[in-house]
Amino acid sequence: LTGYGESHPGRGPGAVTNLINNTLAPMLIGMDATDNIGVWQRVHRMQLSSHGQGAAAAMGLSGIDIALWDIRGKAANMPLYKLLGGSKRRLPAYAGGIALGFQDAESLAEEAQKYVAQGYKAVKLRIGDTAKDDIKRVRHVREVLGDDIDILTDANTAYTIADVRRVLPVLAEIKAGWLEEPFACNDFASYREAAKITSLVPIAAGENHFTRFEFAQLLEGGAVQVWQPDLSKTGGITEGIRIAALASAYRIPLHAHSSATGINHAATLHFLAATENAGYFESCVSEYNPMRDMFGSIYEVGADGCVEPSDGPGLGIEVDESVFEKFPLIDGPGYVVKF
């Protein structure tokens, strides 16, 4: 049996690939493929707890762990959501990905309307441009979409606390569902300050937090009310289950972040279908994302704005490995930007 998983590239795909092939794999070869806990503990002991590669090791482990769960499902001839104790239930989805960004307010509203016409009941707007322009955009989109569509916002760590003091009251005015990642993932002081501004708009974060130990820090800080672990970054499905249980004890909703390819999307759907405190599934509506579509359609958004996991064994994906030849590894930085 062959299982497939997805590790987030961490803006250095060659580095993560090399870590998996030359550091993680040698310490795991020979272990039982169903021993997810043992695999997790070994990588944690040798890489995460001391003298290891930290976040890169967590991303590498994430892909391995997802692949092992795929194997378990195939061996049992069961879809992963059943193996995890869940059911094939409808999961609300929002239109996300690299979309709904910095553009004039009218164009942004038109794009949002397009996704609503496809069935989505929630959209996520990219903010973090300037406070003035962000305020203009979100107010206009709310006016155009009306009150029945959930508007979520994501600043992609671009705000200062001064920006948040200006923008959060307006997000409360338009009844935004959350403000995501206003600050860098390790700027805990700013997150605590932002949470004091209003209780009407929860602060969301988690896609750049690794393992349950960093989510425990979020819990202790008391500032982040919406958790967004990414299964391809935070330690895989095994660690996602632990994070979800931690959140559940404090009535914190889990809205998992989606990574690049259909493997992550399929894993996330199965995971959410077996998670008590599951919230939205992030549906990638990026105009161009060949990685999303390289394994065919993973889900369909219904008129109810919801999606559901596959009934196939494991992740339920048929992988033709020849597709990887179309997307060879390009070593070096994942993004080339002008500083």
Textual characterization of the structure:
- With 339 residues, the protein is α/β, with parallel strands linked by helices.
- It folds into two domains: 13-78, Enolase-like, N-terminal domain (Enolase-like, domain 1); 81-311, Enolase-like C-terminal domain (TIM Barrel).
- The protein has twelve helices and eight strands.
- It has a five-stranded parallel sheet with strand order 2-3-4-5-6. It has a three-stranded mixed sheet with strand order 7-1-8.
- Strand 4 (179-180), helix 8 (188-195) and strand 5 (203-205) form a beta-alpha-beta unit.
- Helix 3 (55-76) crosses helix 10.
- It is globular, with a radius of gyration of 20 Å.
- It starts with 12 loop residues before the first helix and ends in a 32-residue tail after the last strand.
- The mean pLDDT is 96.
- Say how many strands there are: 8
Shape: globular
Give the name of the CATH superfamily of the largest domain.
Answer: Enolase-like C-terminal domain
Strand order of the largest sheet: 2-3-4-5-6
How do the SSEs run, as a string of H and E? HHHHEHEHEHEHEHEHHEHE
Strand content: 5-15%
Helix content: 40-55%
The tally of domains stands at: 2
By helix and strand content, what is the structural category? alpha/beta
Second CATH tier, the architecture of the largest domain: Alpha-Beta Barrel
Straight-line distance between termini: 46 Å
The CATH class of the largest domain turns out to be Alpha Beta
CATH third-tier fold name of the largest domain: TIM Barrel
Radius of gyration from the CA trace? 20 Å
Mean pLDDT: 96
Q: Let me know the largest β-sheet.
A: 5 strands, parallel
Low-confidence region ranges: none
The total count of helices amounts to 12
